[in-house]
Design goal:
mainly beta; 418 residues; seven-stranded antiparallel β-sheet; 25 strands
């Protein structure tokens, strides 16, 4: 079964149009010999086609940053296999999510392996403190729930081969979430696989993401004195001011992660600090009908549009988090972000970037849980991708509740992408 958190925090994301920066060298980490990070060039295909960059608009900024995956060597499978080989193990070690939404490790080698007891990252991956034994040629599923949210390099695993007392640490880079740490780009080629067309492909030693309060971040395990921005407009689009200082995150097995968090909220991203107020499903049948002479009707059905009306609170200047009420107004009235007809994505549980799956779509071919979908709590978890419905309107207000500027009730209507 999935986890037992019934009050997840949402996130609302606009699409990200890279047209102004397509093919442009936008930044590089301030360290010797660092490669330049380039925004993908445009082409005639779709963004999900590994052989063609797309028309310019990404579903959201996380898609642009990560492609919802990792390079092969940076996945948990890649890290485990490399560590396994370094201690004399043969074969590959694979890690993914199984149909019960638990971490599943497959030992493709000829010797038994163990995630040793006392691994600092065991709980984060749902592994008991006593460790996890995976005999050669088998798959073993971790018994516990894995943590949502940005991974911490200090949550490393200790890998051990049968017959050897030695352990070796397996560290995953700071990544947007564990699902992204499990997915290999250019391998799955599913609805969320952008293959190489993302910022992280430009320099896979640098990872990107969005914090729990809706600000962009970048991180690297190498020495870094900052980020050199070749495009100030792209920097501003991500919410960086250029005045950020270097931060250091938890050391994992002797690896120090350094990077920066943007000073400002990410344009086109709002992370409320309260659960949704109300989430109302909608269904609209588009067509026409005409009554016939003598009774009866003639009708034509064009299509059915399914969607949601979302009501939530955004934080005000006297709230505990960032002041988001004007940020919300800017997002919903900017024609480059969330005007009617533009892309919008609802993350129903920030920290889990999988798509929402209606349990009625679970089949022998589509399990209830994998690295693309989650059916937790019906369709009320996971990510809903769609477009801003015109019923949202072009005149947006955010009126405070009560005397104090703490929270502002807002709403929008979205149609689900087919």
């Amino acid at each position: 079964m999935p986890r037992r958190d019934h009050c997840p925090l949402p996130g609302v994301y606009s699409g990200f149009d890279v047209t102004p920066w397509a093919g442009v060298d936008v930044c590089e980490v301030d360290t010797p010999d660092a490669p330049t990070i380039t925004v993908p060039a445009l082409g005639g295909g779709q963004l999900g086609d590994p052989d063609q960059p797309g028309e310019g608009e990404y579903v959201d900024v996380i898609e642009l940053m990560t492609g919802f995956g990792s390079d092969s060597s940076a996945t948990l499978s890649g890290r485990l296999t490399a560590a396994w080989a370094s201690i004399g193990g043969a074969g590959t070690i694979a890690a993914t999510l199984d149909g019960s939404d638990r971490l599943a490790i497959t030992n493709g080698g000829v010797a038994d392996l163990t995630i040793a007891a006392g691994s600092p990252g065991a709980a984060a991956w749902g592994i008991d403190a006593a460790g996890l034994s995976v005999p050669a040629g088998t798959t073993v599923v971790a018994p516990g729930e894995w943590e949502r949210g940005v991974t911490d390099p200090s949550d490393y695993l200790l890998l051990q081969r049968a017959g050897s007392p030695d352990t070796i640490p397996v560290t995953v880079h700071r990544v947007q979430d564990r699902r992204i740490a499990l997915r290999e780009r250019e391998d799955l080629l599913d609805a969320d696989d952008l293959a190489r067309w993302c910022l992280e492909h430009g320099d896979d030693s640098v990872r990107w993401g969005v914090t729990a309060d809706g600000r962009a971040w970048w991180a690297t395990t190498g020495a870094a004195d900052g980020m050199i921005w070749h495009s100030s407009t792209f920097r501003d689009r991500l919410g960086f001011s250029g005045n950020e200082t270097i931060q250091t995150w938890g050391a994992g097995a002797g690896i120090i992660t350094r990077g920066q968090i943007a000073d400002h909220p990410l344009p086109g991203v709002v992370h409320p600090t309260r659960p949704l107020r109300r989430q109302t499903p909608r269904s609209e049948s588009v067509g026409e009908e005409q009554r016939l002479v003598g009774g009866g009707y003639s009708s034509v059905h064009v299509h059915t549009v399914k969607g949601w009306r979302i009501e939530m609170w955004v934080d005000g200047p006297l709230d505990s988090g960032l002041d988001l009420h004007r940020h919300w107004l800017d997002m919903m009235t900017d024609p480059a972000l969330c005007n009617p007809g533009r892309r919008i994505t609802l993350y129903q549980d920030v920290g889990d970037s999988r798509r929402a799956l209606d349990p009625r779509r679970v089949t022998a071919d589509q399990p209830a849980y994998d690295t693309l979908y989650t059916s937790e709590e019906g369709p009320y978890r996971g990510r809903i991708v769609g477009f801003v419905n015109p019923a949202t309107g072009r005149e947006i207000e955010a009126e405070q509740e009560g005397r104090y500027r703490r929270r502002y009730p807002v709403s929008f209507v979205m149609d689900e992408e087919v």
